[in-house]
Batch of 4 targets.
Target 1
Amino acid sequence: MRTIDWVDGAIELIDQTRLPGECVMLRIHTVDELIDAIRRLAVRGAPALGVAGALGVALAGEDPGAIARLRAARPTAVNLAWGVDQAAARLPEGPRAVLDAALRIRDDDIAACVAMGERGADLLDGDRLRIMTVCNSGGLAAVERGTALGVVQTLHERGRLAEVLALETRPLLQGARLTTWELARMGAPHRLVTDSAGPYLLAKGGIDAVLIGADRIAANGDTANKIGSYALALGAERAGVPFIVVAPETTIDPATPSGEHIHIEDRGGDEVVSLGGVRVAPEGTEALNPAFDVTPHDLITAIVTDRRVIRP
Ligand code: MRU
């Protein structure tokens, strides 16, 4: 099953807001529907956003306003703007060329995730690995296989995975809802832990590596990923556990010199004061909600891409 694809003249994608309860496909016919799906995280994860952006240009046609709005639908993952730009560059050649470019990005993502899975699994030593991860970097964040969770899948297929500890990922629970769903479908042993348990469990020992995806990797290796990644990196450094970023080359943004230049999405306080639609904080409580954080490059053991291993 593909997370996102082009089927009979429209975008089809899994509505990730409905998981794990039900796996429902959305058919998207307009750019505005796609922007709405991106903003409410029906489709999410950097590589999937790259494909969505490119396919979205095929829906937008020659409407520069629609293309600009799509490009800005979410700010942090560079893949969205990159995918839009790649497809939009082909507009002068006509709609078939735009769609071909978008389908090429889809196909390249599938191949890149296979390559990252193999390279990441080769990089890790040991036969009974316990891996910690945050958010969802699996097939749901890409097209077929994922990035960091793609490495987990390869380890599992090679019989080298003992267990995954998945952080729940407040406030939208991508770890609790999506990563566990994917790991269960893989048949991979896993347990869910609260976000705040991450650094403590690393300090306690017995975890072989932290594997995370990335939304944007600056030229100096500073990496934006889901909020909570930085705390895990600090905990991993203190515990002497390798902290590995797995992302396609398309997530590296040479135009952004360092992490302080990365635009971190602020999703507003409503997602924090409520949980699953139920208010958990008193009326009137204000909240901060940065959706991502930046891990400085010196805390990153390695960045595994579809082409290489970078040691920042
Ligand atoms: O807000 P999200 O769910 O789009 O955040 C996703 C992440 O932070 C992922 O870790 C990242 O996009 C890499 S996915 C392969």
Target 2
Amino acid sequence: MVRIGVIGAMQEEVSALISQMKDKEEYTIAGMTFCKGSLWNQDAVVVKSGVGKVNIGICTQLMITVFSVDFVINTGVAGGLYKDINVGDIVISSDALQHDLDCTAHDFKKGEIPGMETSVFKADPELVDLAKEACELVNPEISCYVGRVVTGDQFIGVSEKKKELVELFDAYCVEMEGGAMAQVAWLNKVPFVIVRAITDRADDTAAVDYNTFVQQAIVHTVKLLAAMFLKLGR
Ligand code: ADE
């Protein structure tokens, strides 16, 4: 049986998973409590990483090194960038990068990491397909997109900044952890996928929309993950 690592940045994003876990054991490392047990009949480890790239970078490495997970899933919410995307919709990562990595002064492209073979980390195609099938099965009332996720240590809540991200990266959503998890997974040759529900459109009303829709959006990611786990068991 494979072991699945699931990482969410905030308590809301993981509490529904942790409360449904059976035979739970808890281990706290670097201030993060890893819950290991059986989730929807799969061997899983679920953890709240905290917000931002450093937190999830440490967390992902611990998932891999200490808990020996076979793959990692990052679940949570995001700001929508794709023009037709609505609050509540889901984005599954085709790939991920860090939009705030900026060595343009040295002639690198925005998001490009000097010295690395790649700066755009491709999600595992099988996990992407599985997540999409699961989403369409259990969330038929919303749209589910497969597209690029861009990550930075910034909440994007200004339309001008959103415009810049759209023009530069052709991304579907923006958040604050996925690209860093993707980089750590890639460095360790561990497959990954990011699953994000849209709470806002990363524009001037993003902060208010986020608070209004966060609980509602997470319902969709939890349903998706449950269906995905069932499919993995078959
Ligand atoms: N998570 C949810 N909405 C976001 C936004 N607008 N920017 C960054 N992370 C987000």
Target 3
Amino acid sequence: MSFRLREFRPEDLDRVIFINRTCLPENYSRYFFMSIHKAFPDLFLVAECDGEVVGYIMCRIEKSFFRPPKGHVISIAVLPEHRRKGIGTAMLKEALARMSERYGVSECYLEVRVSNTPAISLYENLGFRRTDTIPKYYGDGEDAYVMTKILR
Ligand code: COA
């Protein structure tokens, strides 16, 4: 089945929240999703299959006085019945291209549970490498890998 990517629209909010809660223990308020959409509308993407949203990626640009801005993948998820069709890869590739072309960032990073083999494989396939480990990063005490990709 084919899919298409497009930018998140406010009317997608309930569906994206459903996907987030179905797929991940890290959940966010409606306000948080909308604030990312308002700040970086071109870095919050959804994937549609047959007109239905089945996945999303939400990213932002992290700015600091002391170092160049970096892209940050906050959350990515695809509904279980739509996995292994390349949707996660397509969403992440598109977000990385936009970070580089539109925001000029040279690096993107993300945090991932050390046990999340599917996501780690996806990130490694796209050129992310483990750059750090954050002990007890998650609410249940699990550690996170920080994974980083150089974009240019
Ligand atoms: N086991 C091993 N490798 C896996 C995998 C799995 N269950 N799922 C994906 N991969 C790897 C494979 O290398 C795969 O390539 P292949 O299918 O050609 O072998 C590659 O990732 C790309 O898979 P793709 O189809 O693009 O990813 P997806 O659409 O299935 O989405 C996730 C991947 C991680 C977004 C999806 O599994 C998901 O929503 N997981 C729950 C939420 C989550 O963990 N998000 C990440 C938080 S950091």
Target 4
Amino acid sequence: MKICVKVPATTANLGPGFDVFGAALNLYNEFCAETVDGAKGGIFTLKGEGRKSLPKNEKNLVWQAMKETFKVLGETKYSLKNLNIGINTAIPLSGGLGSSASAIVGAISLANALCGDKLNKSKIAELAIKIEGHPDNVVPAIFGGLCICVKNDEKNSLPKYSHGEILHLPIPKFKIVLCVPSFELRTKRSRQILPKNVDLDDAVFNSSRVAVLTAAFCFGDYSLLEKGMQDKIHQPYRGKMIPAMDEVIRAALNAGAYGSYLSGSGPAIAAFCENKKADEVRKAMIKVWKKESVSVKSFILDFDKKGAAVIRQ
Ligand code: HSE
């Protein structure tokens, strides 16, 4: 039996919506699992971005998340002895486009399909959020589209997040330009540097921007995005590790983008813009990175509407 799953890249936060907003994009990783007889398993076939860097053993995140899923499902018959794993990565690993979320969602979906699809998308999301630690990449990777992830009160009954608390916003008809610098920034590090407490003025500032951002999508008034994507609770801190961040965002806005922000925990930077302005915005962003002698990969993408899709072969 061979099962594959295609999982979209994601862009999270969208500026002020830290751990809340996330969108799926039409750039995909593919994960496959094939059952084999006679203890001939344990072969990892890696292609694309991760072909040289991803581990080909127990430590591989895809295998780790598959193992966790088998545990949750009470399934003991699968191990690396009877499974071969294929990973084809188009999503850059350096950070900001949800590459680890795609691995987690791909792995849970594969293990679930091998076990007869016992988990629905909501349950897949619950487990993926538990493994990833925050919802705004895994949720759009599973459901597609532009999502609002609503966190429960910690003291509330489990689960902390559930499908009932994920809202979908109308999907805009514009492009998302992504510039991904070659230096890596791990999400763990990029979260550790954030202060534990938020200043009240900054909280009010961000609440107002989240309201403007939501209104921009609901009314289809994208002239509101520049203001709606401003943030004071994570970007200023992360910007210290991404020296060109403010200048790249400014360059995107000057070139005609509706809004621009640090994608997820960075170092990727995203800009939302009209189709006809996308290339100009991309060039303006690249120019700033070049000045800083940083090489970048760039993409002009659309929103993905479907989320993770399982393909049985
Ligand atoms: N909301 C998460 C963060 C997204 O900003 O840390 C990580 O991609």
